[in-house]
Amino acid sequence: MVRDLTKGRPANVILLFAFPIILGNVFQQIYSVVDSIIVGRYVSYQALAGVGITNGLTFFIFGFVIGITSGLGIMTAQFFGAKNFKRMRQSLGTGFIICLGLSFILTLLAAASIRPSLQFIGASDEIYDYSCDYLRIIYFGLITQVAYNMVACILRALGDSKTPLYFLIFSSVLNIGLDIFFVKTFGWGVKGVAWATVVSQLVSAIFCFGYVFTRYTNLRLIGEDFRTSWSFIWEHLRVGLPMALQFSITAFGVIVLYSALNHFPTTYIAGFTTASKIQSLGMLVPISLGVAIANYVGQNYGAGNLVRMRVGVNSALIMAIAVCAVVSIGMAYLAQPLTSMFLDPNISGDLSEIYAASTQYLYISALFFPFLFVLFIYRNALQGVGKTFMPLMAGVAELLIRVVASLVLPKYFGYQGVILVDVLAWVGACTLLFISYRIQMPNWDHTLHQYKWGRTH
Prior knowledge:
The protein is an all-alpha fold. The protein has one domain (10-445). It contains 19 helices and no strands. It is globular. The protein starts with 9 loop residues before the first helix and ends in a 5-residue tail after the last helix. Residues 445-457 have low confidence and may be disordered.
């Protein structure tokens, strides 16, 4: 259902829009977590570590995809908010052209980068082959990531956050089933987990496209909608590229972090991987609220509702802080039982070091979670109106902090220093975004904006 986010009580509108996104992210993270559980329990903790060290590498590519498609979706949301439906369809056609070219280029670059990137982060011989096998298959299916994210961002731009949820639930259930089938029945190990992810995403993307263009008449594109210009393409890339680069810059910081982590024993890498998967579940709400705020602000910016934008952002901040308190306490309290889900002592032997590494990570990160929650709200609010420079700079700040901290902290604090790398990056980026938001919000000129988008009164 298409939803106009420019009407209704802001807090209720944001919550209703965000709730399906939260559920969708829950299912997405569940199948990511299940991937790790199956690898850890049915293959080995070495395989778990091998898949784990690819997190930064895959996030570098897929984060770029998420960023660029989110940026394209914001452009669509602004045209929708301005009720300029012809331009909205032209925006969709331009977005598809961009995504097609993006898929081809990224697949080639990703495939060529596998061995150099693993060598860069210092993957040990014990886990190198696991990482290689996993990345080859995941990168092969990159086009399915682009396709699904594109159509999901289009729907969210129009206020429909439920349809992407339904297809994500379907994809998650299919992925889990294929995980078990490929790993337990066929004995494919890490390769089975990777193939399960690609196949489930492909099926979901096909069904999602079919449903969307059958169900929503406003999204049925004709030939002239694909006739674009370099200036219109650049207008989309101007919003999308900084968001994509912001994700990739953050991911590169994670890659640097894993290069520092790889100097520790494989048990520490397995513990860190386990804790990061658990932490990702705690991040679902702020990520989802961030997506909701970007689309909410985008539509209201298109409608020229500056005051309504501010109220919505403040409401999202209150929601984020309230949830953060619950998540932080729960994550710290349940650290050990959650970690035990990923490991089988009958296969892996003594797991005491893995448990210690995982619980330390969760205890420390829980203390700094408020900075991460607030970061997502301010970042997406700025991006929602096309103010992408400072979020990009916040990503650069995260990268610089991670690089410097990764070089210094592990030398003096050991494994605890690796954990502190992430939380210091959150604090730095959050501070920069808060200052930027407070400076830029009062100065947004929506009169000029109304002229630009052809809004009538």
